[in-house]
Amino acid sequence: MFDTSWHPTFYAGGVQGFKDAIEIILQIGDEKSVIIPGHGAVSNKASLREFRANTLLWVETVRVFRKKGYSVEKIMAENESKKIVARFNVQGKVPFLPDTAYKRFVERTIQVIEQEENKGG
After folding, report:
1. Long-range CB contacts (< 8 A, 24+ apart) of 5-11?
2. Residue 3: left (phi > 0), alpha (psi -120 to 50), or beta?
3. Span 15-37, pLDDT tens digits
4. How far does the chain reach from its first CA to its final CA, in angstroms?
5. pLDDT for residue 121 is more than 60
6. CB 41 within 8 A of CB 72
7. Does the predicted model carry a pTM greater than 0.85?
8. What's the rounded mean pLDDT across residues 74-98?
């Protein structure tokens, strides 16, 4: 769900499942609560909110590019895409996301968007 060392995944029921799970986590405890991500460094609610915002920005950006007819490769090449992906690199890894993983991330995002559109979501 929440990973401070990688890009988001959508294993909790797509984008809506992601949003629902994050909201539940944010309702527990207070602002000083420690959040243990699935992978990466121990975190806090501010980081989780930032992760959520970046994830939703990513999904919406991919959605807009797909509506414009962009291919996976064109989405990957867009500076806007690269800037958003860089926001998930909180540990400053070089390289953060190898091309094959970046391509899978774009493809998976498109798949999640299409599944939601097919459900009327």
Report:
1. 5/37, 5/39, 5/40, 5/41, 5/90, 5/91, 5/93, 6/39, 6/40, 6/88, 7/58, 7/85, 7/88, 7/97, 7/105, 8/51, 8/54, 8/55, 8/58, 8/88, 9/108, 10/108, 10/109, 10/112
2. beta
3. 999 899 999 999 999 999 999 98
4. 20
5. no
6. no
7. yes
8. 94
Contact 11, 3 (CB under 8 A): no
Residue 1, classified by CB atoms within 10 Å of its CB into exposed (0-12), middle (13-18) or buried (19+), is: middle
H/E element, 66 = helix 45-67
Structure tokens at 92: 């400053």
Q: Provide φ and ψ at 40, rounded to 5°.
A: 100, -170
What are the tokens at 119?
A: 């459900």
Whether residue 26 contacts residue 67, with contact meaning beta carbons closer than 8 Å, is answered with no
pLDDT in tens, 36-52: 988 888 999 999 999 99
Distance CA 62, CA 6 (A): 18
The Cα–Cα gap between 34 and 15 comes to: 24
